[in-house]
Amino acid sequence: xxxxxxxxxxxxxxxxxxxxxxxxxxxxxxxxxxxxxxxxxxxxxxxxxxxxxxxxxxxxxxxxxxxxxxxxxxxxxxxxxxxxxxxxxxxxxxxxxxxxxxxxxxxxxxxxxxxxxxxxxxxxxxxxxxxxxxxxxxxxxxxxxxxxxxxxxxxxxxxxxxxxxxxxxxxxxxxxxxxxxxxxxxxxxxxxxxxxxxxxxxxxxxxxxxxxxxxxxxxxxxxxxxxxxxxxxxxxxxxxxxxxxxxxxxxxxxxxxxxxxxxxxxxxxxxxxxxxxxxxxxxxxxxxxxxxxxxxxxxxxxxxxxxxxxxxxxxxxxxxxxxxxxxxxxxxxxxxxxxxxxxxxxxxxxxxxxxxxxxxxxxxxxxxxxxxxxxxxxxxxxxxxxxxxxxxxxxxxxxxxxxxxxxxxxxxxxxxxxxxxxxxxxxxxxxx
Length: 432
What we know:
Layout: H1 5-8, H2 13-20, H3 25-41, E1 50-51, E2 58-62, E3 69-74, H4 87-100, H5 115-128, E4 132-136, H6 139-150, E5 156-160, H7 165-169, E6 175-179, H8 184-197, E7 202-208, H9 220-230, E8 235-241, H10 256-259, E9 270-276, E10 286-290, H11 292-301, H12 303-307, H13 313-328, H14 330-350, E11 361-365, H15 371-382, E12 385-386, E13 388-390, E14 401-405, H16 412-428
Parallel strand pairs: 3-12, 5-6, 5-7, 7-8, 8-9
Antiparallel strand pairs: 1-2, 2-3, 4-10, 9-10, 11-14, 13-14
Helix pairs in contact: 4-13, 5-13, 8-9, 14-16
């Protein structure tokens, strides 16, 4: 049975996963519900707080323990440029609802494709430097279904250890091998073993442009070099998830390939540039950008495109406007990077372990179990600050962390308040 002692021992989600392993469905339901109730009763419910506002720099949330409404400085969001609340983006969505209605009404292959979708496909393909694009209603569904379409049980998927969960989900019917995070040498080792096994027809290498729990940037040039070294021995494609890089990296905010001065359309490597519009773009939906031939292949075989209702036209219109703002209002991105550098430098100077972060995602990594993460999160919220607690299975079981997201509209005063609170709690909990 789960009880308060669970938290005394410093355990979190890992306890739940151990408890439900190899249990029947009814027992799994009972155990997980008891876990949830226990988190509330022990004042440890740190996930899923209900908001009564938009995801602004300061949010209004309902404390699930006291049921009261609280104001929190928001360092837990993914909308790094806060385009989700930009007046031009909101206006574009409203105008599209007036023209098209609230939803698209069908899947893309039937009557769910509208001119607004075609416009967005052309826009994101050009934005990313590709030839063609396909849209999906959500980023998770897009990533999972794209990998399922590109790979079968005859193929091998080689994924970075910290590749996003949506990418790993799409690998269920493939042979999945992982390599050390952002380590091209280890990728070469795994590729060598795959080639030597002579069991697979092709390989799909799966990576993130910016890793969502680390904030680290893909070593793109080195990864391409490794793929080129093996591409004459087995057909290798590269899939790059640019969810957390779009709007953030590159001179014009175009993402990882622009950051490295490269085009995703190459003569010798087939690249699938995927992502979501729910992070730096501030809206919703998934996309794949690639060559015309690759996108044509996905159009009729990608299950999300075939069986899922297409993106709401208001969403498509909002995304188009957001992409325009990313390109034409660079001051937003400049403000974001000022805040990133200031916060990262301040935390490093205090002695916090921020890992390999070099983006708007700045983790504060703690060794051991997750009890300390829960307690610090709750103290921060009591002081009016929202940050995200990240534990197993999103990260290794002994590396729980605070995941701090900084945005373009955060003020220096707000960031200083966060830094000062972390400095006090870091000493209290012997992190620094």
